[in-house]
From TrEMBL:
Belongs to the methyltransferase superfamily. L-isoaspartyl/D-aspartyl protein methyltransferase family. The active site is at residue 65. Keywords: Cytoplasm, Methyltransferase, S-adenosyl-L-methionine, Transferase. It is found in: Cytoplasm. It comes from the Bacteria. This is Protein-L-isoaspartate O-methyltransferase. It catalyses: [protein]-L-isoaspartate + S-adenosyl-L-methionine = [protein]-L-isoaspartate alpha-methyl ester + S-adenosyl-L-homocysteine. One of its GO terms (biological process) is methylation. Its EC number is 2.1.1.77. Coiled coil: none annotated. The gene is pcm.
Length: 218
């Protein structure tokens, strides 16, 4: 990498971290965002924009989420080092890599084979060994590995999928975008309690949709 590129990268990274800090992201998550090489997760064409606070296109017509949203949803999960976490929508693998720094193991599901394969290669390159991937329809969760302490959806569903709530431990938390495909969605946090479900609607957002079934195309 040319020297000038590195300088550009680190200036952008500092600006990004400052922006996230003023958006209320805590110190621990900021340091993960600072040290996680997002350029590894974006396509070569967008590498010079890796530290913009923006969602970027990835393969299969999908997107890598905006860093603020990754940080915000991670914070909402309130992770602990012994937790088992399920992510729906591996995409580039960036969000999973961030989660993996804060919990025991991440199980992540993606409906595009190409995305899963590329994400696995990135985890290996970065020596991340506590992520388990699966090519499947994530809206059904991962029955064999349930129950989970935390579940993160990174694709939007019209309603909180019941199968996912079923796979949460008692007092477990699910975070994700809920709402119609072609309109605004809300990032919600759902807590499963012995007396029922507590739902908080927290922030307006826009995500790619959760689509049933695995993709036939790559
Ligand atoms: N977490 C990703 C963001 C990916 S965008 C990242 O950090 O890059 C959402 C992803 O959810 C897309 O890759 C999309 O293919 C995937 N997705 C949509 N519906 C799905 C489903 N039913 N099961 C698994 N993955 C799904």
């Amino acid at each position: 990498m040319a020297h000038s590129d590195m300088d550009g990268d680190s200036a952008q990274k500092i600006a990004l971290v400052m922006e996230l800090r003023s958006g209320g992201i805590d110190h621990k998550i900021l340091s993960i965002i600072e040290t996680m090489p997002r350029e590894v997760f974006v396509p070569p064409l967008f590498r010079n924009r890796a530290y913009e606070n923006a969602a970027l296109p990835i393969a299969s017509g999908q997107t890598i989420s905006q860093p603020y949203i990754v940080a915000y949803m991670t914070q909402l999960l309130d992770l602990g080092p012994r937790m088992k976490v399920l992510e729906i929508g591996t995409g580039s693998g960036y969000q999973a890599a961030v989660l993996a720094r804060l919990c025991r193991r991440v199980y992540t599901i993606e409906r595009y084979r190409t995305l899963i394969r590329d994400a696995e290669m990135r985890f290996a390159t970065l020596n991340i060994h506590n992520i388990t991937t699966r090519f499947a329809d994530g809206s059904k969760g991962w029955q064999e590995q349930a129950p989970f302490d935390r579940i993160l959806m990174t694709a939007a569903a019209p309603e909180v999928p019941e199968a996912l709530v079923d796979q949460l431990k008692d007092d477990g938390v699910l975070v994700g975008p809920i709402g119609p495909e072609s309109a605004e969605q809300m990032i919600v946090r759902v807590r499963k309690t012995s007396t029922g479900i507590l739902r908080e609607d927290l922030m307006v957002t826009r995500f790619v949709p959760l689509v049933a079934g695995v993709a036939r195309e790559v």
